[in-house]
Amino acid sequence: MRPVEIGLDGLLCLLLLVLAWKALRAPHLYQSAIYFIALGLVMALAWVRLAAPDVALAEAAIGTGLLGVLLIDSLRVFARDSKTDPDAESEEPPPGEINVYPAGSARPSGRTLPMILVTASCGLLAILLVEAIIELPDGGGLTAAAQENLERSGVDHPVTAVLLNYRGYDTWLEVGVLLLAMLGIFCAGGRVGFAETRQSNPPGHLLSWLIRALAPLMILAAAYLLWLGKLAPGGAFQSGVILGSAGILLRLAGFQVISRLPPLAVKLGLLLGFGVFLIFGGAALLTGRAFLEYPEARAGELILLVETAAAVSIGFTIFAFFAYLNSRDQPEAQENHAREEGGNQKP
Amino acid sequence: MDTFYVALAIFLVLNVAASLIRVIRGPTAADRLMTAQLFGTTGVALLLLLAEASGQPAFRNVALIFALLAILIVICFVQTTGSAAGPGNREA
Amino acid sequence: MTPADAATIVFCLAGAVFFLAGTVGLLRFPDIFSRLHALTKADNLGLGLIVIGLVFQAESIAGAFKLLLIWGLALAAGSNTCYAIGRYALERLPEKGPKEVEK
């Protein structure tokens, strides 16, 4: 490795540590969110330097775009929730240092015992990671095995082959975890915000134009990454995140996203990812193969089908996460939710 | 040629590091948001340079995703904080 | 060094200058609107010149178009976000606005 490359890597490592520290210790949660977004960017660069484009793609989509939006939006809810004085609502936030999120989002002062516990667990994790690096097998472990069977897997990209074919079980359960998280959000009242859009602040002409132009491009990019997963870095997760982001963008502009679709299609979309895996797994068991084992001749098509279903579900799920946060402070949505809860309690 | 790309990347990373000072100083949320916007653009440039340096054009897709998603944060900020107690949208 | 390489180096260095100018402006300019002005230069020209520099190295026409598409996206997004930030600052922080707007 040349000296410039070592310099770049060292700089990235240093910046990562500084940003992580600042994100944890900034005096205000809004600053923390900005540091966190920057951390995602530097992390994506680090993955590129480590020649891991699949992870870099996921980091760029989730770490920077999606998490940034979720953090910024939840900060608003934070500030609103902590207001105990009803008159504070009408007050203009004082311009100056902290002008947007006045109360509640200032960082609470740290406590000693939790800090010690967190530091100790981080230290332990660091030791374990160093040990894992030292014990890394020569020749990259299972890389050779993954490459050897690539021809039979139905795809040309080893990472997709691992995710969807060799270790399809893991991916299935990951999609299941997302489904569970979404059900949890729906139980906590996210279903109302998911279905209804109420926009109190319509975007100006320029932003509205941009959002109209960008949303279809995002859906196109999602389809492109999904298709690309067959032969190059890309795939269902990255594609799903971009699909969900397109929905978030439309919702931010006040467009109806979910209520425009037929309810059955929405339900299907939410369940499709987990369900298609399950159907294929079951079908494989019935025809005498192992769970989620694809017939070799049709593996490529089946994997694409499973990935498309997973991407659609991931997109819907991510949209549901954001919709829940976004509807938190809107009085109408809360009223609806309260009404619904009341109705459930009195059958 | 690769050395040139990597050296340029170092320069841009130093730029990112320097603009962190604006996040610390603020003073307003809009200033900090501008820094995030600069991070996004510099990030796209950095990813393109590193894609060229590593000879793997696949990394350009990371830059593409970045360019697509960087705007989400700013739109989210403007749309959600604008609906607070402020005077709101004058055009609308 | 081929002519294409030379062109790449010239354009990329020019782009780097604009990134430096944007960063220095962001750090040194006194108010939001002039900082915004500095930022848009890095957004549009900094990235644009680097993209033009890299187009000379593109392995195919499609690759070159993809680079230009990325720039186009960043351009559309960047100018709109800066407009949005500017309007936000004008509405929420009127005392920080340019003098002529105040009157």
Describe the structure concisely for a colleague.
The complex is a heterotrimer of chains A (347), B (92) and C (103). Chain A has 347 residues and is mainly α. Chain A has 13 helices and no strands.
Helix content of chain C: over 70%
How many domain modules of chain B?
1
Spatial gap, N to C terminus of chain B: 51 Å
Which segments of chain C are poorly predicted (pLDDT under 50) over 5 or more consecutive residues? 99-103
Write structural notes for this entry.
The complex is a heterotrimer of chains A (347), B (92) and C (103). Chain A has 347 residues and is mainly alpha-helical. Chain A folds into 2 domains: 1-81 and 101-137; 158-347, no CATH class. Chain A has helices spanning 3-25, 29-49, 53-81, 112-134, 143-148, 150-153, 158-166, 168-195, 205-228, 236-252, 263-286, 299-326, 331-345. Chain A is globular and about 60 Å long. The termini of chain A are far apart. By secondary structure, chain B is mainly alpha-helical. Chain B has one domain (2-82). With 103 residues, chain C is mainly alpha-helical. Classes of the chains: A mainly alpha (347), B mainly alpha (92), C mainly alpha (103). Chains in contact: A-B, A-C, B-C. At the B-C interface, helix 1, helix 2 and helix 3 of B face helix 1, helix 2 and helix 3 of C.
